Amino acid sequence: MMSWLGFIAPVVFWSNALLFVYVYWGYGVLLKALARFRGEAPLRHGFDGNSWPLVTILLTVHNEESNVARRLANLMEQDYAPGRIDILVVSDGSTDRTDAIVEVFCRGRPVKLVRTGRIGKSAAQNIGMRHPTGDIVVLTDAAASFDPCCVRELVAAFADASVGAATAHLRLLERSGAVAASQSMYWSYELKIRELESRLGILAVASGTAMAFRRALFRDLPPHVGDDDIVPLDIADQGYRVVHCLSALAYDALEHEDGREFRSRVRMTMRNWIGIWMVPSLLDPFRHPGYALALWSHKLLRWLGSFGLVAMTMAALAMAATGTGSFVALAFAAFLAAGAVGMWASRRRKAIPLIGTVYSFLLANAGFLVGICKALSGHRIVAYRSGMRSS
After folding, report:
1. Which residues, at least 6 apart from 3, have a Cβ–Cβ distance to it below 8 Å?
2. pTM
3. What pLDDT does 388 receive?
4. Which of 133, 195, 340, 369 sits most deeply, having the most CB atoms within 10 A of its CB?
5. Which of 153, 155, 252 is nearest to 213 (CA)?
């Protein structure tokens, strides 16, 4: 028994360690190599004169009285073709002053309010999609903000007939704390991956806070799956490209509290996990090799790595018990201990750079693990707090 463990434990440990190396470093290197080898997928950008399409900005809110006025003012400042943009606000059962504030903006402005009962964001968006006048729909949240040229830069991508959706370059405004600092590093890497996938024509993820798509390609959202989870997958499944627009700048805030970051990871993983399996054809390397590479490497393996951490912990214990890798087991124990120290420091509002990064990594993977387990056990989220981004 001990000899068997002495053989299998190192295999389990190092295979999972290599998985993490691939997901968080090797995949980016592979994408860069493919971009150099294949070159960038050509893309027409921009419209001429009065040919810019009609655009509807769809803003779904629930009890956003503290944000909605600022958000609508920001959207009204968009530098887009005059008379060719309107704003549709769907209030998902708001019980505060949100509706009254929106009604003020509806007077003499291209703003419309649609009220629903408390049915959840996705169901409310489905109702909202019965009302847009624009050929292009831009989705956003109340907490986000747009650069004045954001909508124009997003819509410019649709001059290419192959483009079905476009996602903005979402910048997360930094806050203090180890979790926020580590998430900033993580998000920078995420954006680089999206840029490379977009260049290769295999991007199938987007940020729901700043995403545009052709109205004709929209499919009703399942109530327990978010817009940023399923819309880009649906677009790709219909044979259209999803592109990342570097020049379309949007802004949101980094999560900085441990508990909220964990719950956010759980929610996003649950909804993403459910959504990605609703379009299984894109995961088939024989039918869609590019999308399969992107979705397995960018999404599924990243989430499944949380189980890999559990396997590595068990393997390290077995290696220590059998004496086949005592130093490796000790090093991994130090890694986990660093995470515990990082948790202690974070809860006392102290930032220890490398230690905080380890803690943030373990916190995110704990969220991935719980999210997948909940999704597999049948849990579903319908009404939920708007997340910051898809990742």
Report:
1. 322
2. 0.90
3. 42
4. 369
5. 155
